[in-house]
């Protein structure tokens, strides 16, 4: 095993060289998706290192599987050729189905005493407690469908786990290995942060609710209503900071709970920050944020239109790390490397509350999970999307060093990372989360097979219960161009991004979860009659998938998406106001229900409502959490839909009172 400093330029790994060969070429690092067993770790081809032995538990060895032939990347820029490469094992194997929740990350923690790894498993509905000294594994059962998420350490040997669809926070006694309390908190809890000094647990909810609980009793101490789509919550220099998922926006709260400052990471090249997968607080009033950068430049819709990322930042979706400082900052002294226009990092000037330095992570494909060692000297990033590939590569863990002793990152943080190198360790299985132990060594969690990897190539099996799902794998599949379905539709939903197409104009990403099969035809224009047509147009053509999967596998993808539950409604709605809004919505004179009908509140027909063309009626399930709205993202909120963005013939709403519109908004937030 070889460790290379992230910011040095001693060695350029083969994966970075491949990324820089051509502006249309991407790096895909994945594992053939029949990986129901761990595979041996494989070093990059430029490093002649024999693969280490993999241990499951203390003794059992596993053989290294044969790797399928590499599939060449497509070269045509206009019309697709008939794929002739051998099918990767994902497509050659029969379809398999199992419970497989969308990836959320943050599901792994090592306790402060360094003794126990806590792994939340949303597929098996269990929390695994692993003794890192003896490798003994215990498990705590949770309720089916809880969809376990973030883990935070609490007081007196306890940990808290967010039940994202269970509407609760679970308190677990690590010593006894028992679930001690189930605390109802909000419809969709996401972020958790425990304040040791005040014995308070902060819970960030998707609806925008921020709840403070007593760490011992679980009683609610306070509730704040913030912007929707909250993701993580931190305590930084005595102030609460929360992130928003799709916008990657950071909100800083003052002592009264009001938002005192907000900012997203800066744009990079032609891309905007989006999809904040994970944030981790650092010393010195900083935090690290793993997120995406998504193109705002005009795109085509032909073959390869979505293809590839490069070291120059040319992909339609790129993965990035941002270092955020609050208050007085020295980040501004880090100069932006503009060079020849291929900057991989940008620094925003301090505005009194935030200073942010950002850089691409070359060769990574989200979803991402992030960990920082306790002394902030090491960073580890799991690129979960690299676990499924048509090329047969292995998923990758990126590890780097970071020196914050001067209150700012080294100048190399702002340099184009095409010119440098980083330590990349290839992983077995389907890695989904990462943490550091007390000694500063990384620990990685794989969902399938369920195991922990300890730095040094030791593996601990958590369960032999397989949860490989073909549709889940298809959804996260690196289509060979550094992009997957999950890139623009994280967690089975959507990224909130408005894309600019050179031939059709602005188009906002559409959600895929909650009975997508009921929403044909697809795309705002309704030009794709079936899911198979959608797959062919987007994944085969625009994403340039170089092999043709069997129809059974395409159907498995549709079935997996169809099984993702709808988003939980907003918290704290007034039942009387919702009922009034439903009456207004159903009023034939107002006309909402004439098009927004059926279980998804959509008639699946095209209508011209005066917004610039005819578009298929969008489903309203989860609409309260989907701003911006309309096909072009014109409406920044549900309330804004009833202004000029709503069009000139979008129901008979011009004569509604403000109270009626408020009621309509409340009703739609309940869907």
SSE blueprint:
Blueprint: H1 14-20, E1 55-56, E2 60-61, H2 89-92, E3 108-110, E4 116-121, E5 126-131, E6 137-141, E7 148-153, E8 158-163, E9 168-173, E10 178-184, E11 189-195, E12 200-205, E13 209-214, E14 220-225, E15 230-236, E16 239-244, E17 250-253, E18 259-263, E19 271-282, E20 286-295, E21 317-326, E22 345-347, E23 354-360, E24 368-372, E25 378-383, E26 396-401, E27 423-426, E28 431-436, E29 442-446, E30 450-454, E31 458-463, H3 470-476, H4 485-488, E32 498-501, E33 505-508, H5 531-542, H6 551-562, H7 575-586, H8 592-595, E34 606-608, E35 614-616, H9 658-669
Antiparallel strand pairs: 1-2, 3-4, 4-5, 5-6, 7-8, 8-9, 9-10, 11-12, 12-13, 13-14, 15-16, 16-17, 17-18, 19-20, 20-21, 21-23, 22-23, 24-25, 25-26, 26-27, 28-29, 29-30, 30-31, 32-33, 34-35
Helix pairs in contact: 3-6, 7-9
């Amino acid at each position: 095993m070889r460790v290379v400093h992230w910011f040095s330029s001693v060695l350029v790994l083969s994966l970075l060289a491949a990324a820089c060969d051509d502006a249309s070429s991407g790096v895909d690092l994945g594992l053939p998706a029949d990986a129901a067993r761990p595979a041996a770790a494989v070093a990059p081809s430029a490093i002649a290192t024999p693969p280490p032995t993999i241990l499951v538990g203390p003794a059992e060895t596993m053989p290294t599987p044969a790797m399928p032939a590499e599939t060449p990347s497509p070269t045509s820029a206009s019309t697709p050729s008939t794929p002739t490469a051998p099918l990767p094992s994902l497509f050659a194997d029969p379809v398999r189905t199992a419970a497989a929740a969308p990836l959320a990350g943050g599901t792994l923690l090592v306790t402060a005493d360094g003794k126990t790894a806590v792994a939340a498993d949303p597929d098996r509905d269990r929390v695994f407690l692993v003794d890192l000294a003896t490798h003994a594994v215990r498990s705590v059962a949770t309720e089916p469908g809880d969809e376990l998420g973030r883990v935070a350490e609490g007081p007196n040997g306890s940990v808290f786990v967010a039940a994202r669809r269970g509407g609760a926070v679970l308190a677990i006694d690590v010593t006894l290995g028992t679930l001690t309390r189930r605390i109802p908190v909000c419809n969709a809890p996401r972020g958790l942060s425990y304040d040791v000094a005040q014995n308070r647990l902060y819970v960030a909810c998707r609806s925008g609710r921020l709840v403070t609980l007593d760490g011992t009793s679980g009683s609610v101490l306070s509730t704040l209503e913030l912007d929707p789509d909250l993701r993580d919550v931190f305590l930084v220099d005595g102030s609460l900071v929360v992130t928003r998922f799709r916008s990657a926006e950071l909100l800083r709260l003052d002592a009264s709970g009001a938002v005192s400052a907000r900012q997203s990471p800066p744009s990079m090249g032609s891309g905007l920050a989006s999809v904040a997968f994970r944030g981790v607080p650092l010393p010195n009033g900083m935090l690290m944020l793993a997120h995406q950068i998504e193109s705002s430049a005009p795109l085509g819709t032909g073959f390869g239109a979505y293809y590839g990322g490069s070291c120059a930042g040319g992909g339609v979706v790129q993965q990035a790390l941002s270092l955020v400082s609050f208050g007085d900052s020295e980040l501004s002294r880090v100069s932006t490397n503009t060079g020849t226009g291929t900057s991989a990092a940008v620094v925003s000037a301090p505005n009194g509350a935030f200073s942010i330095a950002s850089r691409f992570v070359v060769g990574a494909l989200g979803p991402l999970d992030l960990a920082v060692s306790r002394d902030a000297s090491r960073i580890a990033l799991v690129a979960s999307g690299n676990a499924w590939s048509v090329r047969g590569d292995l998923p990758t863990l990126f590890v780097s060093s970071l020196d914050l002793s001067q209150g700012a990152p080294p100048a190399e943080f702002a340099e184009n990372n095409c010119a440098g190198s980083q330590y990349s360790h290839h992983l077995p299985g389907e890695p989904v989360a990462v943490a550091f132990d007390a000694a500063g060594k990384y620990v990685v969690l794989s969902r399938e097979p369920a195991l922990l990897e300890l730095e040094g190539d030791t593996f601990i099996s958590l369960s032999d219960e397989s949860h490989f799902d073909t549709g889940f794998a298809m959804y996260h599949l690196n289509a060979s161009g550094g992009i997957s379905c999950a890139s623009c539709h994280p967690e089975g939903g959507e990224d909130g991004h408005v894309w600019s197409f050179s031939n059709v104009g602005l188009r906002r990403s559409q959600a895929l979860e909650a009975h997508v099969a009921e929403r044909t035809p697809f795309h705002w224009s309704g030009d794709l009659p079936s899911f198979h047509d959608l797959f062919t147009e987007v994944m085969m053509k625009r994403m340039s998938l170089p092999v043709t999967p069997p129809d059974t596998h395409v159907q498995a993808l549709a079935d997996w998406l169809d099984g993702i539950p709808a988003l939980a409604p907003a918290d704290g709605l007034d039942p009387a106001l919702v009922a009034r809004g439903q009456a207004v919505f159903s009023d034939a004179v107002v006309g909402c229900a004439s098009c927004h009908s059926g279980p998804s509140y959509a008639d699946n027909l095209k209508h011209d409502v005066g917004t610039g063309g005819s578009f298929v009626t969008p489903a309203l399930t989860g609409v309260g959490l989907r701003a911006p709205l309309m096909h072009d993202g014109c409406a920044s909120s549900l309330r804004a839909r009833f202004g000029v963005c709503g069009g000139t013939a979008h129901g008979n709403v011009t004569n509604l009172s403000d109270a009626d519109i408020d009621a309509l908004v409340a009703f739609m937030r309940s869907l």
